[in-house]
Amino acid sequence: MDDFIAQLPKAELHLHIEGTLEPELAFALAEKNKITLPFKSVDEMRAAYNFSDLQSFLDLYYASISVVQTEEDFHDLTLAYLKKAASQNVRHTEIFFDPQSHTARNIPMGTVINGITAALREAQSELGVSSKLILSFLRHLSEAAAMETLQQALPFRDQFIGIGLDSSELGHPPSKFVNVFEEVRRQGFRVVCHAGEEGPPEYINEALDQLHAERIDHGVRCMEDAALVKRLAEEQIPLTVCPLSNVRLCVFKTMSDHTIKQMMDAGLLVTVNSDDPPYFGGYVNENYQAIQEAFGLTREDLVQLARNSFTAAFLSDEEKQKLI
Ligand code: HPA
Ligand code: ZN
């Protein structure tokens, strides 16, 4: 089955570029940029990837990204991920980036976006992987800060296609960002939103009704609300599920407790993604493998999941034809 998964053409729709930083690259960049990481070695850093909830992960995720500073660093980080994606037969990826975690360190928006975009172009021409970029607001910060970030990003608007919402979910509902997402839509960007990872099903409804999100990132807690499940199934709203992430952040105790099979059986448009791969112990194929083993998924199930990933992508039918 692992070979079958490996050869399936896939799209990855839930991936934070900051969360692709492997400890080896972190140490190389720390040395180059003369920054001290709070770990003595790569092994010690990897051993710290032991989380009790979303916040315990985010604390390390934000601290580690301090080593990524120049346009070249953003390029190298992005290209490393895209090479790995290509090796797993990922044909298309829609990548999140968190500009506020960089502008807060006085790194200009252009440094971030131009570095990432240079790698996306290179991967398209040299690896045949297509990509789109999605800017993500940090929801633990204010709506005013998100609005300012949007304004800073507008000069680079041709380099990203959508906007999402990530970071600490509990206590920061989508409704906090209604005004900024109204402006996001007025500017013509696609809208996605992390919701129902740690937060309640109500946050998913808010993302749909108040932000007009077209895709829900995670969304696993929808299963607690039968009316919401019915709605998500009827409207075929894509859910970008990240199984290894959910287990490593204790959303589910073990992979056998994950509700992804129930979600598939309920007719939801489920996709499988890696979120922050080195932190959670696997890229996209390892996520497919983990659920295949836990639930005995058939080849047909796996093909359906891979097909869903293209259905849910922000690509035209013509672009999809070329990829598969
Ligand atoms: N949830 C919220 N914020 C994040 C995540 C996530 O899974 N990964 C990186 N930032
Ligand atoms: Zn995420």
UniProtKB/TrEMBL annotation:
<dbReference type="Pfam" id="PF00962">
    <property type="entry name" value="A_deaminase"/>
</dbReference>
<dbReference type="GO" id="GO:0008270">
    <property type="term" value="F:zinc ion binding"/>
</dbReference>
<dbReference type="InterPro" id="IPR032466">
    <property type="entry name" value="Metal_Hydrolase"/>
</dbReference>
<comment type="function">
    <text>Catalyzes the hydrolytic deamination of adenine to hypoxanthine. Plays an important role in the purine salvage pathway and in nitrogen catabolism.</text>
</comment>
<dbReference type="GO" id="GO:0009117">
    <property type="term" value="P:nucleotide metabolic process"/>
</dbReference>
<protein>
    <recommendedName>
        <fullName>Adenine deaminase</fullName>
        <ecNumber>3.5.4.2</ecNumber>
    </recommendedName>
</protein>
<keyword id="KW-0862">Zinc</keyword>
<dbReference type="InterPro" id="IPR006330">
    <property type="entry name" value="Ado/ade_deaminase"/>
</dbReference>
<feature type="binding site">
    <location>
        <position position="14"/>
    </location>
    <ligand>
        <name>Zn(2+)</name>
    </ligand>
</feature>
<keyword id="KW-0546">Nucleotide metabolism</keyword>
<comment type="similarity">
    <text>Belongs to the metallo-dependent hydrolases superfamily. Adenosine and AMP deaminases family. Adenine deaminase type 2 subfamily.</text>
</comment>
<keyword id="KW-0378">Hydrolase</keyword>
<keyword id="KW-0479">Metal-binding</keyword>
<feature type="binding site">
    <location>
        <position position="16"/>
    </location>
    <ligand>
        <name>Zn(2+)</name>
    </ligand>
</feature>
<feature type="active site" description="Proton donor">
    <location>
        <position position="197"/>
    </location>
</feature>
<dbReference type="GO" id="GO:0043103">
    <property type="term" value="P:hypoxanthine salvage"/>
</dbReference>
<feature type="domain" description="Adenosine deaminase">
    <location>
        <begin position="9"/>
        <end position="324"/>
    </location>
</feature>
<feature type="binding site">
    <location>
        <position position="194"/>
    </location>
    <ligand>
        <name>Zn(2+)</name>
    </ligand>
</feature>
<dbReference type="InterPro" id="IPR001365">
    <property type="entry name" value="A_deaminase_dom"/>
</dbReference>
<feature type="binding site">
    <location>
        <position position="276"/>
    </location>
    <ligand>
        <name>substrate</name>
    </ligand>
</feature>
<dbReference type="GO" id="GO:0006146">
    <property type="term" value="P:adenine catabolic process"/>
</dbReference>
<dbReference type="GO" id="GO:0005829">
    <property type="term" value="C:cytosol"/>
</dbReference>
<feature type="site" description="Important for catalytic activity">
    <location>
        <position position="218"/>
    </location>
</feature>
<feature type="binding site">
    <location>
        <position position="275"/>
    </location>
    <ligand>
        <name>Zn(2+)</name>
    </ligand>
</feature>
<dbReference type="InterPro" id="IPR028892">
    <property type="entry name" value="ADE"/>
</dbReference>
<dbReference type="GO" id="GO:0000034">
    <property type="term" value="F:adenine deaminase activity"/>
</dbReference>
